[in-house]
């Protein structure tokens, strides 16, 4: 059994990533996802085309970023889609990490897997059932499927893990918040390794109606971050899961590493529930603190994975804050918004975008911002329009913003 040396736990403040798992509109595993990133594939499609049974209640012309060809693990078929995605991504990440669970201390494996809002598909399905049959009985597991923290419980049960668990819910920044919670578990000596990330399944009638009412969905059914014609985003689904380990633990078992966590930071900007005040400085302060904790200058960053949702105000806010935080160096950093390819995966976005950054660092390329044909002069960073480009990446930064004002950023080192 692998167990870290107790006398060294206090020095285990460096965290590495040893495994990744992805379920997304542009690939149901990490290999498919990587090919799509390099080719600039866009996962936009008709809901009916993607899954006629699940989306039969939608209009035939409803366009979004659903999964295509996803088959849930047999043990997860009774679960809400967001949990299925997280379970499938966890299975891939564990396999990728080569972490043999039969040889590790299950009380030292943490879990930090979340969702932005829980089982909305389950909620709508059983809400309709109760309207037709108000006295119908609903199994207890149905209620459990609604909880945003329930994927953590299912992962622990399936793999018989008994370590610490922490669940963060931060709207669109949930995935990155969950990863940071997992990192902190290891930094503070609570765990030797951690399963961290998020899944989301927000393609339901209730959720789409809500997003439309907020005015954030694209009427042109196209997500084009930083483009002059941008008019909002489209919803995507999926999950991103990372296997985090202390550097000492990973070295002890001779694990391959995607990269090292150089720094991470939370921030908050409570100016408005669903938008950010362009005159505020929340993200600016967040990024400045990230640089300070990482001990670097902005020009040392080789790739910046942007939040970039394709809303007018959101893209302007993010661009302005980056320029304030990084100064003239901001214009020299290759950047992109991969939501242009995956859609806005809501709670899963932050986790999938960290994985994107790790893949880009491993393979030496900058993913493109798809559909960026007419750059907005106000959003004047190097956003890598339309096509990926080769580049050696030693330091990558990923940013996540969430409705409600949550902010997070992470700095990854090769």
Automatic annotation (TrEMBL):
Q: Which Gene3D superfamilies match?
A: 3.40.47.10
Q: Which GO terms describe its biological process?
A: fatty acid biosynthetic process
The GO terms this record gives for MF are:
3-oxoacyl-[acyl-carrier-protein] synthase activity
Keywords (A to Z) from UniProt: Transferase
Going by the entry's taxonomy, the superkingdom of the source organism is recorded as: Bacteria
Q: Which CDD domains match?
A: KAS_I_II
**Record bears the keyword Transferase:** yes
Record keyword Transferase present? yes
Q: Which residues form the signal peptide?
A: none
Q: Where is the Ketosynthase family 3 (KS3) domain?
A: 12-414
PANTHER family for this protein: 3-OXOACYL-[ACYL-CARRIER-PROTEIN] SYNTHASE, MITOCHONDRIAL, POLYKETIDE SYNTHASE-RELATED
**Similarity comment: family membership:** Belongs to the thiolase-like superfamily. Beta-ketoacyl-ACP synthases family.
Q: What is this protein called?
A: Ketosynthase family 3 (KS3) domain-containing protein
Q: Which organism is it from?
A: Candidatus Danuiimicrobium aquiferis
């Amino acid at each position: 059994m692998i167990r870290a040396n107790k006398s060294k736990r206090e020095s285990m403040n460096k965290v590495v990533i040893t495994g990744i798992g992805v379920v997304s509109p542009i690939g149901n595993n990490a290999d498919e996802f990587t090919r799509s990133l390099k080719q600039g594939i866009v996962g936009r499609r008709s809901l009916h085309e993607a899954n006629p049974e699940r989306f039969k209640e939608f209009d035939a012309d409803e366009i979004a970023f659903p999964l295509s060809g996803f088959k849930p693990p047999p043990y997860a078929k009774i679960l809400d889609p967001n949990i299925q995605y997280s379970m499938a991504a966890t299975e891939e990440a564990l396999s990728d990490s080569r972490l043999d669970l039969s040889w590790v201390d299950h009380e030292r494996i943490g879990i930090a897997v979340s969702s932005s809002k829980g089982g909305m598909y389950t909620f709508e399905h059983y809400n309709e059932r109760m309207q037709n049959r108000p006295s119908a009985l609903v199994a207890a597991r149905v209620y459990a499927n609604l909880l945003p923290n329930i994927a953590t419980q299912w992962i622990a049960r399936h793999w018989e893990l008994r370590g610490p668990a922490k669940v963060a819910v931060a709207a669109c920044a949930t995935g990155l918040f969950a990863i940071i919670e997992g990192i902190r578990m290891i930094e503070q000596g609570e765990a030797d390794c951690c399963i961290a990330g998020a899944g989301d399944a927000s393609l339901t009638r209730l959720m789409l109606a809500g997003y439309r009412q907020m005015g954030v969905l694209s009427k042109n059914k196209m997500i084009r971050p930083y483009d002059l014609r941008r008019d909002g985003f489209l919803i995507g689904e999926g999950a991103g899961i990372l296997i985090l380990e202390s550097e000492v633990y990973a070295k002890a078992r001779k694990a391959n590493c995607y990269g090292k966590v150089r720094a991470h930071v939370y921030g908050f900007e409570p100016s408005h529930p669903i938008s950010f005040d362009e005159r505020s400085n929340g993200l600016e302060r967040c990024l400045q603190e990230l640089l300070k904790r990482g001990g670097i200058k902005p020009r040392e960053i080789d790739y910046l994975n942007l939040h970039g949702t394709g809303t007018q105000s959101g893209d302007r806010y993010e661009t302005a804050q980056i320029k304030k935080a990084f100064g003239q160096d901001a214009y020299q950093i290759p950047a992109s918004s991969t939501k242009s390819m995956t859609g806005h995966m809501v709670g899963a976005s932050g986790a999938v975008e960290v994985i994107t950054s790790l893949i880009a660092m491993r393979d030496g390329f900058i993913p493109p911002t798809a559909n960026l044909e007419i750059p907005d002069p106000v959003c004047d960073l190097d956003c890598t329009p339309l096509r990926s480009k080769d580049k050696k990446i030693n330091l990558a930064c990923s940013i996540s913003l969430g409705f409600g004002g949550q902010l997070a950023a992470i700095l990854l080192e090769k």
